[in-house]
């Protein structure tokens, strides 16, 4: 990754993204037509299996053998101003909980055979050295009144995310899930989404961790003020992250962009990860072709971002936890899509007649 010092934009460059194979996707559709079922009867499982086949570059595709969840942890200065139902100290406590295996992400990952890794990008506390190797700073700035990061910190955070993606892929991950942990992080996520989609704050702001009406009003005001600050930077992803994002969001954007560069499929989780995905698509155009949306959360901004990215969520279960939990719940559906395309018998294999067989036997339709 390089910065472009010759441009007025605070740009960061990724290698070009190669799209999943259109040829293999067509082969998957042809195979679907030969399986022992009415055409289209498995619904979205058929399109999902075609997407996996295209990403893997082979048909039939194979089941994912080493799915990996990376939880990006970071604090945000805005959390000190009443936008969350929980105190900022919870971030560090939850990092320790995830490390110990006690969080929802750990439990759900265990049911999927997925590994979990938590990384401290900007937690406002000292954390175990095993998770803080890529740490950029302690907490990002309060974005309603100051920049989240310096330019150098944004670049280093994006580079950290890229490095983490490379580490996971180099160690054999064949599917990635980005999760997040950070009290107050839905506030910068909503600012990024509202800015990139020209959405009014009142239409985008949700309850996050479950704030009451007064907390919702404070959160809406903070997002409105941050949007005023970020308005000149909507077309510049690095400046956008610097002004109104955060180190964790920047690292997630780098992670998602690099996963696409490395031709590794990703299940995108909730509103915070999807906000980072919108920025990643700016950093590495075409990256979204390597992503599938795991679920639609209850946050209004999440639906806005999914529409912008043209990602149709697999599930809608009213979830709003984060951590990668929604993506993990969707993962077995994706595995089921692969299994049906790969392991079902064809009409020829099973000796099952098709409508075409009957037409061929009596083309006049008089029998």
Rg, nearest Å: 22 Å
The CATH class name reads Alpha Beta
Q: Strand order of the main beta sheet, please? A: 4-3-5-6-7
Distance between the termini: 68 Å
Number of helices: 15
CATH arch. level architecture? 3-Layer(aba) Sandwich
- Tell me the helix content: 40-55%
Strand segment tally: 7
Overview of the molecule:
Residues 1-9 have low confidence and may be disordered. This protein has one domain (67-330): 3-Layer(aba) Sandwich (Rossmann fold), CATH 3.40.50.10210. The protein is built from 15 helices and 7 strands. The protein is an alpha/beta fold and 367 residues long. The strands form 2 sheets. The chain has a 5-stranded parallel beta sheet with strand order 4-3-5-6-7, with helices on both faces. A two-stranded antiparallel sheet has the order 1-2. Helix 5 (151-170) packs across helix 9.
């Amino acid at each position: 990754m390089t910065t472009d010092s010759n441009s007025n934009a605070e740009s960061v460059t990724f290698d070009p993204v190669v799209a999943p194979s259109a040829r293999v996707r067509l082969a998957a559709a042809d195979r679907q037509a030969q399986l022992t079922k009415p055409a289209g009867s498995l619904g979205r499982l058929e399109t999902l299996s075609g997407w996996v086949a295209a990403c893997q570059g082979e048909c039939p595709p194979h089941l994912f053998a080493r799915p990996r969840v990376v939880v990006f942890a970071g604090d945000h200065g805005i959390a000190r101003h009443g936008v969350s139902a929980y105190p900022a100290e919870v971030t560090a406590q939850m990092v320790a909980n995830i490390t110990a295996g006690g969080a929802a992400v750990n439990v759900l990952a265990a049911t999927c055979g997925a590994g979990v890794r938590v990384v401290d990008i900007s937690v406002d506390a000292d954390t175990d050295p095993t998770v803080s190797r890529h740490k950029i700073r302690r907490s990002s700035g309060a974005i309603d009144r100051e920049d989240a990061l310096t330019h150098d910190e944004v670049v280093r955070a994006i580079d950290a995310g890229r490095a983490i993606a490379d580490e996971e892929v180099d160690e054999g991950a064949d599917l990635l899930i980005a999760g997040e942990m950070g009290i107050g992080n839905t506030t910068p996520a909503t600012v990024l989404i509202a800015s990139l989609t020209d959405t009014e704050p009142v239409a985008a702001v949700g309850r996050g961790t479950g704030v009451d009406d007064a907390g919702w009003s404070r959160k809406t005001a903070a997002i409105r003020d941050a949007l005023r600050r970020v308005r000149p930077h909507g077309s510049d992803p690095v400046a956008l992250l610097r002004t109104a994002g955060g180190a964790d969001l920047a690292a997630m954007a780098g992670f998602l962009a690099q996963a696409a560069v490395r031709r590794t499929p990703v299940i995108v989780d909730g509103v915070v990860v999807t906000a980072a995905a919108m920025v990643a698509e700016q950093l590495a155009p075409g990256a979204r072709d390597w992503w599938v949306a795991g679920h639609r959360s209850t946050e209004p901004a999440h639906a806005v971002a999914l529409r912008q990215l043209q990602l149709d969520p697999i599930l809608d279960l009213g979830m709003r936890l984060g951590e990668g939990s929604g993506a993990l719940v969707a993962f077995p559906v994706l595995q089921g899509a692969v299994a049906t395309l790969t392991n079902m018998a064809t009409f020829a294999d099973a000796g099952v007649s098709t409508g075409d067989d009957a037409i061929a036997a009596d083309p006049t339709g008089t029998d």
